[in-house]
Structures are given as structure tokens and as C-alpha cells.
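Quiz preparation item.
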């Protein structure tokens, strides 16, 4: 039997093989400052290194005036596209080169680079790297342009206001750690900070779980690399808590916009040495690739970078306008001005067409990635629902076998570990609350632990039952009475906005209001007064504790 298909079905079957726009991936962005006594000489030296690199890519020698720092464009037959634009005031030089991939057909790499005099007297150097394919993009390891290593190895480089030396930043003393924490939380920091911890007690820099020399070359100007000694890890844990620390050969990446009071620790990924050594089939090497890829990906999230270092097409348009204005002021003939305008219009037309292809490609990739993220999210939610159902079943089974023996600590020192052991799946203690208890002088510490267990054993089952179980509600209210506690709304609904962030926490990437609290002794003396502020996370079906054991201040306090 001969199968017959409609024209539409035949066309749709070909659709995956027909690309209406190139597949374009932004690979990396780098922006550093170069300091030195002679900025003009640094500018010329950097430009020379970049031109040497471009000259090796083009397949034809660059014109003589290119080496003198002037505007040029290379479009000869047999040569790869390369162009540069020079602006004298303000001092600015930008270039672009298209490089065909030598191994993958129909794939090329676009590199844009810019040099400028920064307002503080330094030289700003920025690059962007794109991968462009007319077929489905084959997998590749993200990287930075090779010439950066030549430029950055010769000069003092500043990233996020901090000098980058040949060796990673070494943390040994408490003062080192305090300076490090200040840098981590600085609003000026825009790049990842990757910390490699040494074994417990070690001060030997060579004992990181991954050799850092090759990672440094691949992330030069794109991330900060730090080594923390064994003794210094204790200082870090003491100052930021175990949940945000890194120790015993673990590796942690601290993302930008870090706020210890509001962030969740998982936003700053932590990997332990056993996991690193068993990562994929290549172990630590594969994990190093992952670190590089993730940190280069975060360089693409800085939306203000184009305002600081405009893309090549925009710089070329600005330079053309400057040239036309200068010619008009110099009294150029109408014919010459017309030729300049026609040239500008033709350049603009080509650039608009090229930008349309670029952005169509970027949008197509973004849509694919967004759809994948949605699928991954849905799959995760599905898995979580199954896990929650399994947990509920196990809890009911345990309940029929009698109460488990739970030790009630006399201090808050082990609260995080205790919560992971006994509360997981039902009650989450937010990092803001963990930081609060570390400073607490509350005397009746066991009451706080008992209140958390009460939430796990009575409140959570009541809420998961949709608050419809009268017996569960009565049991919860009885347990509140047994502990001498009261559960009530924190503030009237209209007042939360008046208190700023006092009653808000960030969780799972969204802000939540601590709308409920457990009230104990009403004393304003922090040794005796007790409060536990929380909210119910309906999607997770869990309690999130955002503050304890003291009062949160408000206008009435």
C-alpha cells in the first residue's frame, strides 16, 4: 500500500532540516580594566596583540593602515571578514572578525572586541564571542578568545575593582576572610567567585581537588578564582555559617548579588570532593569543564554591558556619523556629503539585515531553551509531587510504629544539621533564620526545637489535609496549648508593605511574606521573649521558617 501525504505534511516533515535563521549562541563576554602609568602605550600594545591575532585568522594580510590603528574592512575574495573602527574623541577602537570553524562545516565564530579609555584613567577591554551555525549547533566547550591570554599576561588586570594576579587569591587569616566576605557582597561585583578549599588543616595550595592552572587560563577575566586554607575555612564558617561556607576540598561558586540574609545556599552551588572525582567518566576534568561553562554563561547575564561597551555595529554607525559631521563642518561639497550618506545608508542596511538574522537566531535559541526549561521544571515538579506522596506514606507508616526518639539540643549550634535530619520534607529553615539564631541569647532553647517539631508533626499534616480535618486541627491546637504557644497572623494584611523587607524573605527565587508566627513569652528581653515567623508554601506543601527566636520589629515595637 502506497502512503499518501498532503503537501502540508510533506513540508512539515522537512521543517527540522530547513533553517530560516542561523542558530546563534552567545558564548562568553569579558570586560576588564587594565591599569598602568602610560594608558596610551597600553592602548597601543593591546591593539597590536589583537591585530596580530586577527591577522592570523583572515587568510589575507591586513592593510598597512590597519596596523596604524585606523579604520579598515577586509572583504577580499578568499579572506574572512574582518573590520575595525577607530574614534579619536573619545578614544575608542572596536573590531570584529568572523572565523570559519576548521572542524565543523557551516559553523563559524564571531568575535567582537573593544578598547577604550576609562574615566578613571585605566584602559577598558571588552570582548564578545558568538557561535553561528547554519545547521543544528554541535556541542562545544565554551571559551574566551585566545588573544586575551596574550593581552592579560602582560599587564595588571582589574576585574570588578579587584586586581587579578597570576595566582588565585589565597585566604589564610581571619582578616583575609573578612575582606573576602566584603568583596562577595559588594554590589560592584558582576562575576562568579569560585572557591577551592584545601583539606582540613592544610595550607598547601597544590592540594585543591582540581588543578587550577588550566581553569585559570580558560576563565581569565571572566571569574575570580580563590583558594581557602583549612584553617581559614573555620573563619568563613564562623562568619557566614556552615550553609554558606566551603571546606575540606569542596568547591563553591558564589554568584553575583549575594545577600546572606535573603539568599538560599543552593543558589551558590557547592560540590564535595567525592562528587567531583566521580563526575561523569572523566572525573575532576569533566567537573572543571562544567565550572568553566557555567561561569562563562553567567557573563552573558550582565545586561548593562552594552551600555559600557557598545557592540561593533553601533560603534561603526557612530564613527560614520562623526565622519559625516566633520566633513560638513570642513565645508565638503554636496556630492561628497551625498556619497558619505549613501555609504552610511548602505552600511546601515547591511547591518540591519545582519542584526535581524542575528536576533532571529538568538530568539529561536532562547525559545528552545525556554521550552526546555519549562519541560525540566514540569518534570521536577512531577518528581517532587511523587516524593511528597512517598514521604507522606512513610510518615504514616512510622506513626503506626510509635514515636521516634529525637534528641532536643540545649544550644542552636547544631540547628542546621538537626533540621536536615528531622525536619526534611516538612519544615525548611530559611538561611535568614539560621543567621538569627547564631546571634541569639534566648535561654529556653529547647522550646524552639519543640516548636519546630510541632510544626512538622501537627501543623504540616493539618495543612496537607486542606485544613479540613477537624481532628488534626484540634490536635494542633492542643499541642500549642501544651507548649504555651499561640499561632496567629503576623500583621494586618495591609501593613506588610509598610515594614519594608522585615517580614519578607526570598525563597525559590520569589519573595514571600512571613504572615504567621508562633508567640510565646511576650517579654521584649531577648533572653525570654519567643517568636517563630513562618509561611506556608502551598506548592511545596511545606512550612518555611523565616525568623526565630526573637521579635521582629515593626512600627508598634
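Solution:
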Amino acid at each position: 500500500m502506497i502512503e499518501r501525504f498532503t503537501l502540508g505534511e510533506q513540508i512539515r516533515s522537512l521543517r527540522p532540516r530547513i533553517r530560516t535563521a542561523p542558530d546563534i549562541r552567545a558564548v562568553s563576554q569579558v570586560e576588564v580594566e587594565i591599569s598602568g602609568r602610560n594608558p596610551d602605550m597600553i592602548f597601543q600594545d593591546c591593539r597590536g596583540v589583537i591585530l596580530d591575532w586577527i591577522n592570523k585568522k583572515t587568510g589575507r594580510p591586513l592593510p598597512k593602515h590597519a596596523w596604524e590603528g585606523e579604520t579598515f574592512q577586509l572583504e577580499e575574495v578568499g579572506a574572512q571578514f574582518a573590520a575595525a573602527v577607530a574614534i579619536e574623541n573619545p578614544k575608542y577602537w572596536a573590531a570584529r572578525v568572523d572565523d570559519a570553524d576548521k572542524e565543523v562545516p557551516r559553523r563559524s565564530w564571531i568575535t567582537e572586541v573593544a578598547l577604550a579609555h576609562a574615566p578613571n584613567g585605566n584602559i577598558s577591554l571588552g570582548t564578545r564571542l558568538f557561535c553561528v551555525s547554519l545547521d543544528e549547533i554541535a556541542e562545544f566547550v565554551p571559551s574566551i578568545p585566545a588573544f586575551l591570554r596574550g593581552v592579560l599576561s602582560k599587564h595588571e588586570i582589574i576585574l570588578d575593582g579587584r586586581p587579578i594576579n597570576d595566582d588565585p587569591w589565597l585566604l589564610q587569616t581571619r582578616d583575609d576572610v573578612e575582606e573576602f566576605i566584603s568583596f562577595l557582597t559588594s554590589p560592584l561585583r558582576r562575576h562568579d567567585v569560585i572557591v577551592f578549599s584545601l583539606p582540613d588543616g592544610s595550607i598547601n595550595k597544590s592540594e585543591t581537588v582540581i588543578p587550577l592552572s588550566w581553569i585559570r587560563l580558560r576563565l581569565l577575566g571572566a571569574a575570580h578564582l580563590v583558594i581557602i586554607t583549612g584553617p581559614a575555612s573555620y573563619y568563613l564558617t564562623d562568619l557566614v555559617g556552615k550553609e554558606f561556607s566551603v571546606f575540606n576540598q569542596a568547591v563553591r561558586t558564589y554568584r553575583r548579588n549575594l545577600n546572606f540574609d535573603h539568599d538560599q545556599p543552593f543558589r551558590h552551588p557547592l560540590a564535595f570532593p567525592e562528587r567531583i572525582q566521580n563526575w561523569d567518566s572523566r572525573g575532576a576534568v569533566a567537573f572543571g569543564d562544567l565550572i568553566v561553562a557555567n561561569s562563562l554563561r553567567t557573563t552573558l547575564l550582565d545586561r548593562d554591558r552594552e551600555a559600557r561597551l557598545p557592540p561593533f555595529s553601533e560603534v561603526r554607525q557612530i564613527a560614520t556619523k562623526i565622519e559625516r559631521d566633520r566633513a560638513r563642518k570642513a565645508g565638503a561639497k554636496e556630492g561628497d556629503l551625498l556619497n558619505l550618506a549613501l555609504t552610511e545608508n548602505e552600511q546601515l542596511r547591511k547591518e540591519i539585515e545582519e542584526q535581524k538574522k542575528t536576533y532571529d537566531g538568538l530568539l529561536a535559541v532562547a525559545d528552545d531553551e525556554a521550552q526546555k526549561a519549562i519541560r525540566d521544571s514540569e518534570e521536577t515538579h512531577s518528581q517532587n509531587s511523587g516524593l511528597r506522596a512517598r514521604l507522606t506514606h512513610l510518615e504514616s507508616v512510622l506513626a503506626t510504629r510509635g514515636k521516634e526518639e529525637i534528641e532536643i539540643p540545649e544550644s542552636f549550634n547544631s540547628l542546621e544539621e538537626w533540621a536536615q535530619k528531622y525536619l526534611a520534607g516538612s519544615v525548611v529553615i530559611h538561611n535568614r533564620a539560621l543567621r538569627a539564631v547564631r546571634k541569639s541569647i534566648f535561654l529556653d532553647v529547647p522550646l524552639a526545637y519543640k516548636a519546630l517539631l510541632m510544626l512538622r508533626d501537627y501543623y504540616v499534616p493539618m495543612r496537607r489535609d486542606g485544613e479540613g480535618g477537624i481532628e488534626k486541627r484540634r490536635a494542633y491546637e492542643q499541642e500549642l496549648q501544651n507548649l504555651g504557644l499561640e499561632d496567629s497572623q503576623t500583621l494586618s494584611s495591609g501593613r506588610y508593605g509598610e515594614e519594608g523587607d522585615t517580614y519578607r524573605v526570598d525563597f525559590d527565587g520569589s519573595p514571600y511574606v512571613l504572615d504567621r508566627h508562633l508567640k510565646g513569652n511576650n517579654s521584649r528581653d531577648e533572653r525570654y521573649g519567643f517568636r517563630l515567623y513562618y509561611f506556608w508554601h502551598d506548592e511545596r506543601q511545606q512550612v518555611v521558617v523565616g525568623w526565630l527566636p526573637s521579635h521582629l520589629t515593626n512600627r508598634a515595637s
